[in-house]
Amino acid sequence: MLDQDNTALVQVRDLKMHFPIHSGLLRRRTGAVKAVDGVTFDVMRGETLGLVGESGCGKSTCGRAILRLYDITGGEVTIDGTAIGQMGQGALRPLRPTMQMVFQDPQASLNPRMTVEAIIREPLDEHTRMTGAEKADKVAELMDAVGLNRRFAKRYPHAFSGGQRQRIGIARALALNPKFIVCDEPIAALDVSIQAQVVNLLEDLQEKYGLTYLFISHDLSMVRHIATRIAVMYLGRIVELAPRDALFGDPLHPYTRALLSAVPEPDPTRARARDRIVLQGDVPSPANPPKGCNFCTRCPAVMDVCKQVEPTYQQVQPGRFVACHLYETTGTADPTAGHPPHIS
Amino acid sequence: MTDRAPQASADTILPAGDPTPPVLAVKARSQWRDVWDQFRSHRGAMASLVFLIAMILFVLAGPLVWRLDPTALDIRNKDLRPIVNALWGAEKVSWAHPMGTDNLGRDLMAQIMQGGRISLAVGAAAMILSIVIGTFVGVIAGYFNRLDGLLMRLTDLFLALPLLPLLLVMMLLFRDPLRAAFGPEQGIFILIVAGIGITSWMHTARIVRGDVLALKEREYVLAARSIGTPSRRIITRHLLPNVLSPILVSATLGLATAIITESALSFLGLGFPPDFPTWGKILADSVPRMTAFPERVIWPGLAISLTVLAVNYIGDGLRDALDPRIRGL
């Protein structure tokens, strides 16, 4: 449909993750928080897809839903040729080694009562039949790979710094030789100096093991550094997906432009010359998104049609996808761009 | 891993280009040794452990040394005062009965020893039973949303039951079949332990459920799910060790409650047979003449409260010792 490239490792089609809201005396279902509401993209083998957006736009939920840590509301996820969207958790278990996750808060993602060795060994305990000595060797090897001293294997997570803890989390994610790792803001909780170390480590590991990342972040400069393609999310939907340089060089969607204009510019003369787009208002509630385009309440280029009709997510240039009415009529690459948009 | 594993393990055994030798050989101290070291540094807990062991020895080995029959009547020597009273007055004291005797001339020390066996056994067994039930219900209710409502309403139901009448009904219904099946003392023991156990698990269940509800949203549980750890192992590996502190606290409190409840049952004549001493019953029997003979309340009272205090301290020390953050590793 969008990109039938057969090198796609992960295909996400119209993924929806709604969390029900129960209220009233009888706890009836009265609505849903549409955390992820129809997201479609591919992640190619060996690439890093950056997923950016402001807080609460559904980035993390999207990452977790792709790994089926939630039971998704709708859509399909295909990882390495296997459709896992509607699979039961039991059937999913043998596939878990393929896909792993690195979490945002290295403090919270490590069990305080387990030693580092036990933490890194847990995936091995669950999925391999190695002997104790083999596991110990593998743990030591993983600790080497992420730059942790093997002497620390018997220590507990609280004895480590934030960066070291994140390395423990990465070692755990690597233990089963996954193909696909969702990095859920892996650097958001770290110092800037440590951020660089961790990002470099992730890049080295990617090169070494041929990993594919979905890199979720709100740090645009870091995403620019690590990602090959970038998807921008707003209120549960992807508004724009483009190769990194194209996105940073020529953002199409008004929201992307606003987001990029918020990146600090180190050169003061250029910073002064640049006009910042400051969005007005707040993000609407995902429980009650606006009619039409989700961004229509804050869009500087809003048109009448935006408030009525939901824009379609379509390819406007080779490899560039955008969901905006500005491009629906002027779209050049997509022959279907001019068709009457469907009303949702 | 299939292609890298053999090579990797060979690497670790023979670090060819690695300048640092493999340091895995650094002897890792056993985790339980660390726990014990931390426990020893808690003075109250150590003192309590010594006290509790002494108390257990006293009630277990004591009757072998102090061979008086706790139920033997000796009317001529009734109402003897404890030996310490000799310090301040010409009281009726006798070295043959250092803690004194009761109004029927039964030796108090022998009674405390014999009663301690029962009280400690009932307290420990009932506490373990209630902790097991409470933890099980709490973990299941907290972890599986679907069962939460049902199990918590069940807990509320048990909390709303008037316990003493319930226990009385249980005693009446099941005493005779159990006595027939296990003998008079065993049968009553099982009945009392079961009765106290299944009427005192609710607070533990609520506390554990609350903690599990908070813990299961933690990222390390999510990480375990992303690894593919099944729920049962998430519970045993990640949740239970982290709810250990509240469980230990309710366990230590539960022991005290169990001993007291047993005494209440004995007081009502529904526990052990009347000639069968327990700490609770010695205490209850002595209450009417407490003003004249305070020691008869003080001895069992001291035994109960010091045991409970000791268990509390041990639980405190154990909780600290089992927490790696406090252990400072």
Automatic annotation (TrEMBL), chain A:
Pfam name, any one: oligo_HPY
Location in or out of the cell: Cell inner membrane
CDD domains in the record: ABC_NikE_OppD_transporters
Domain ABC transporter: 10-260
Matching PROSITE patterns: ABC_TRANSPORTER_1, ABC_TRANSPORTER_2
Membrane topology annotation: Peripheral membrane protein
Coiled-coil residue windows: none
Location (main, coarse): membrane
Keywords: ATP-binding, Nucleotide-binding, Transport
Record-level Gene Ontology MF annotations: ATP binding; ATP hydrolysis activity
Residue stretches spanning the membrane: none
GO-annotated cellular components: plasma membrane
GO annotation, biological process: peptide transport; transmembrane transport
Protein family membership: Belongs to the ABC transporter superfamily.
NCBIfam families for the chain: oligo_HPY, PRK11308.1
UniProt protein name: Oligopeptide transport system ATP-binding protein
Automatic annotation (TrEMBL), chain B:
Keywords assigned by UniProt, alphabetized: Cell membrane, Membrane, Transmembrane, Transmembrane helix, Transport
GO biological processes: transmembrane transport
Region (Disordered): 1-20
CDD domains per the UniProt record, alphabetical: TM_PBP2
Any GO CC annotation of this UniProt entry: plasma membrane
Residue ranges constituting the ABC transmembrane type-1 domain according to the UniProt record: 116-315
Topology relative to the membrane: Multi-pass membrane protein
PANTHER family: ABC TRANSPORTER (PTHR43386:SF23), OLIGOPEPTIDE TRANSPORT SYSTEM PERMEASE PROTEIN APPC (PTHR43386)
Similarity remark: Belongs to the binding-protein-dependent transport system permease family.
Protein name in the entry: Peptide/nickel transport system permease protein
Organism: Loktanella fryxellensis
